[in-house]
Amino acid sequence: MKSRTLVAVLLVLVSCLVGESLSPQKTKLPEPYRKWLDEEVVYIITPIEREVFLKLQTDRERDLFMEAFWKHRDPNPNTPENEFRTEHYRRINYANHFFGRSAPMPGWRTDRGRIYIILGEPNDVQRYEGKTGIHASEVWFYQDKAKFGLPPGFHLVFFQEGGQGDYKIYSPARDGPQALLTSYFGDPVDYRKAYESLREIEPGLADVSLSLIPGEWETGLGRPTLASDILINKVENLPRNQVEEKYAQKFLQYKDIIEVEYSANYLDNDSLIRVARDRSGLYFVHYAIELKRLSVDAYENKYYTTLKLNGTVTSFEGKQIYQFDKDFTVNMDEAQIKLANVQPFDLHDLFPLIPGTYKLSILVKNEVSKEFTTLEQTLVIPEESPTRQMTLPVLGYRTARVDSSKTRLKPFQFGPYQIYCQPNRVFTKKELLAVAFQILGLSPDERAKGVVQYTFLKEAQVAYQKSRPLADYPDWPNCLEEFSLAEFAPAHYKVRMAVLAQGKEIASQSEEFDVTPQAAIPRPWFYSKLMPEPGDPLYDHLIGTQLLNSGRAEEAKAHLEKAFQRKSDSPEIALSLAQAHMALAEYGKVEPVLVSFLKQTKSPKYEIFFLAGQAHQKLNEFAKAAEIYDRAVTHFGINTNLLNAIGECYLGLGRTKEALAAWEKSLEISPDQPQIRKTVQALKEKK
To answer: I want to staple 632 with a disulfide (CB 3.0 to 4.6 A). Which of 226, 565, 587, 609 is the partner?
Structure first.
């Protein structure tokens, strides 16, 4: 009795959880969307998808989400028809037509309708109706579902409980053979006796009454196991387990950021990020994004697309420290597109970053397919004079030695070593495993006497170990070690590197990888962005801008002045240096930096004019500021910022009428400016 009671409690809990996930939400939705959510996709939508859908605010957003929902279930995205969607609605129509006839509810809500919508047509159906001694029952048999984690063959049983009402799904543990009998007077927990009674009436039904899985029930147990109920639970949750829910979260996260034609087309990716210090002392973020697929367009046997990349680095206080936009133009011929169909496609890039802890967000958009993918990760950039530490290793399948003193900087190049790596970190037994990392902050004595110990772990057991003196690494702080994988059995491994000084561990890192039984792996082809050689003024500009954005204006100015001295014809560098002067209240130094760019008539920059005007305003040089703002209007037209600034200058010059005219025009463009409106009202009252 205790066992049966426990089974019943477990099943009730499972039913409650499933029921809660499917129950209509209190959120009010327009009727078509409520019907879609609570009727049409109720058995196949995941909890996260449902949660995201209920957070959407407009019908346009809901329509786009529904498009994404079906797209991520489409077995063949290259065809016009979504075969999954078509089959799903066919099953709903079938369930409503055949299973709702004798039930006080639509067919899709019945147990048979639910299972039919989830699994489709059974391979075989046996019906037991109109027989004395047993309740009307149906036995559905399914096979060839092993790819979904289900048994190779199994039954599902439906019966009229108590001989009335609609068919309900049968549980051997909860209901037992006695529930299939119209009358049973034996012990209610004596499954054996009930089974024998049922077998005398209908052997075929008795065969599935103790287990839905052929060959699973052992007669010596005396009662059914939970295996059949676990099977039913797996079936009912099958559609939700077949979908990667990440796209729904990305839809919600980026729906207000990306264009609407992209929002329904999230594309998954694999990624790798590593931080390493260059010989100049700057830290660089190296990253790889491997797209799930690369969609291209074709014209005259040429294949092409453009991948637009936008990256932002923000502090945990919400300050945007760095922002970048890059384009990757992909052009391929017939031979290359054939290779692209079997090889992964990786974007590789790098950028310098000042010390701190940040959030990195990268958005990649394919202009041809209107697909997007994202990468988000926390970055930790150590101080320039770090204590003892080891960087996270890069595991590569090939390396090359380059002259790092003359070349431009490449992603995943550490000192003289170019590491060819892939985010998934899978290797064959025929390959060499390259382990590349940096060791920083060691004393000369530790470098001279210390060792690096490599330990390979398989299932937490040491599979291989090797040590090497630190003095044997000539390209300090860059370390590279290569290992043959010929003796490594296919499995999941962890490699751990530890720096030992006088027998004591002072720094360590680890990384996981897999050795595959496959003879070969299709390695990716790369599109990489190169950076200028070390010492280029670009780096002082980037570092200076990051320092300025983080609120460290004095440090920023030092870098930006160096960059400006070497490249004074760059409007971007000049603008950043002028912004540093403004942040430090050095208003008189702004126009000398910007003066040559204020005279440009070809491709002038609005920000330069506006900043120069602000500097003169701060110096109470209102006439000069107004003159610069007027020139900005000539080049760029009017906007509220310019009109408001011009109004302030006129007011400072005592020209109230002109100030009012500028502010009133600003309010026409943007009425929601309470402070400007208040100022205008006060000036009018003074008249």
So the answer is: 609
Structural domains counted in the chain? 3
* Same domain flag for 375 and 485: yes
Claim to verify: residue 340 and residue 360 sit in the same structural domain: yes
Same domain, 231 and 292: no
Determine the Cα–Cα distance for residues 496 and 487; give it in Å rounded to an integer.
18
- Rounded CA separation 167/39 (Å): 20
Torsion of CA 470, 473, 474, 478, to 10 degrees: -100
β-bridge pairing 461-469 and 356-366: unpaired
Pick the last residue of a domain from 528, 563, 580.
Answer: 528
Q: Indicate the pTM of the whole model.
A: 0.81
Q: Are strands 451-458 and 461-469 parallel, antiparallel or unpaired?
A: antiparallel
Q: Which residue from 126, 114, 120 is spatially nearest to 148, judged by alpha carbons?
A: 120
DSSP 139-192: EEEEES-GGGTS-SEEEEEEE-GGG-SS-EE--TTTT-GGGGBS---S-TT-HH
Backbone angles phi and psi of 445, in degrees to 5: -65, -40
Distances (CA, A) of 357 to 284, 354, 411, 507: 14, 9, 21, 20
One DSSP character per residue, 459-482 reads TTEEEEEEEEEGGG-SSTTEEEEE
Q: What residues make up the domain containing 204? A: 122-239
Structure tokens at 37: 């959510």
Q: 508 and 552 share a domain?
A: no
- Rg, Å, the chain Cα set: 35
User: Can you tell me the distance from the alpha carbon of 481 to that of 488, in angstroms, rounded to the nearest whole number?
Assistant: 16
| Measured distance CA(460)–CA(482) in Å, rounded | 22
Q: Are residues 281 and 218 in the same domain?
A: no
Strands (E), 317-403: 320-332, 345-352, 356-366, 371-381, 389-390, 394-401
Last residue of a domain, one of 503, 528, 553: 528
SS3 label, residue 84: helix
Instruction: Look up residue 682 and give its two tokens.
Output: 């006060």
> In 3D, which of 408, 443, 395, 452 has the Cα closest to residue 284?
408
Tell me the CATH number at 563.
1.25.40.10
Establish if 250 belongs to a structural domain.
Answer: no
In single-letter form, the type of residue at position 377 comes to Q
Q: Write the pLDDT tens digit of every residue in 344-401.
A: 999 999 999 999 999 999 999 999 999 999 999 999 998 866 678 899 999 999 999 9
The predicted-structure confidence for 100-129, as pLDDT tens digits, reads as follows 777 789 999 999 999 999 999 999 999 999
